[in-house]
Amino acid sequence: MKGRDLLVTGDGQYQACKSVRAWDLLRENYRLYRFLTELEDVLNNGDDQASRLPEIRMLVRRLIVNSYWVGSQYLEPSPKTGTSVLLLYEELGFPLTVQTVTFAPGTRSTIHNHGTWGIVAVLKGQEKNTFWQRTHSPDFQEKIEPTGEVTLFPGDIISFTPDAIHSVEAVGDEPTVTFNVYGETDPKQRFEFDSVTHKSRNF
Question: What is the 8-class DSSP label of residue 67?
Answer without folding.
Answer: -
